[in-house]
Amino acid sequence: MMETDGYKRIGLGVSLVWLFFCLFPLYFVAVTAFKPPIAVSQGPTYFPFVDFEPTLQAFRDAFSGLRGDFYGPIMSSIMVATTATALSVFLGTMAAYALVRFEFRVKLLSGLIFAVIAIGGFTVLSEVYEWTVPTALATVLVVALVVSVSANRLPLPGPVLGNRDVTFWFVSQRIFPPIVSAFALFLLYAEVGRAGLTLLDTFGGLVLCYTAFGLPFSVWLMRDFLETVPIEVEEAALVDDISRVRIFFQIVLPMARPGLIATSMIVLAFIWNEFLFALLLTSGEWQTLPILISGQNSSRGDEWWAISVAALIAIVPMVIVATILGRMMRSGLLSGSIK
Hints:
By secondary structure, the protein is an all-alpha fold. The chain folds into two domains: 208 residues, MetI-like (MetI-like fold); 55 residues, no CATH class. The chain is 72% helix and 2% strand. It is built from 15 helices and four strands. A two-stranded antiparallel sheet has the order 1-2. Strands 3-4 form a two-stranded antiparallel ribbon. Helix 7 runs antiparallel to helix 9 and helix 10 runs antiparallel to helix 11. The longest helix has 32 residues. The protein is globular and about 80 Å long. It starts with a helix and ends in an 8-residue tail after the last helix. 26% of the residues are buried.
């Protein structure tokens, strides 16, 4: 019994140390945001009203425009993150539902046919016939999709990929280093802009990028959630001659609401904190909060009070989201949905 109590004390001590390491950076950022510049430059201080006199001067400078436009990046982050999260979770839920309820058999050779037609056709149309990049890309993708789907119906030799392979393909999109896809997306947006459709530094361009960015997470998470929805309810609805569309919207989505909430919060956190895509795809008008934080310096060096204000503004919404999710999990609302 005494040995068990000892282990409990050791576990409690380790947990408290870990809690300190997790919370101290947040505390230091919050404290620094309320310091006057001289309190920052004189050395580390930790306790308001003891080491320094707190002030709101850094917040007044930020929202008065002295430190640049704060309102624009805040609104950009809110609009882009919420819209992209809604789209990626909605599309990901539909894809996850299809992967759970229907059986897919994708012949590997048909996938290779798609790749050959897409890559080879794009090279021929853009280099030999000098088509514009957007036109050539759209054309070859449509042709490659039609041909590969038709070929998949034929008795082709070779391996056949199932639902688990399709799911892994979705998740594998996040395996590649982000700089690879970010730079390629920048070049694509630039070419589309030359054709007359502006996507760089626009709301639509960022939403399109972040929807694709969040889609693998949505498919992966919602697939596990939808597997917990009892199929007997859907089968009863099918007996009553209810269409699959109505079943999805009126039965499956309400029953999967806890999963939708949890997935939305997780995807929102990823999109809200994303830096690289926003850095490459924006130049001023639609810059997000991570870009704002990285730009909080001056010719005199890093002004940590201003950086802390921007960081605090970016942190608080995600802390609220994490708190809500934690309360939902503790109350059992998500019980049985998260594995």
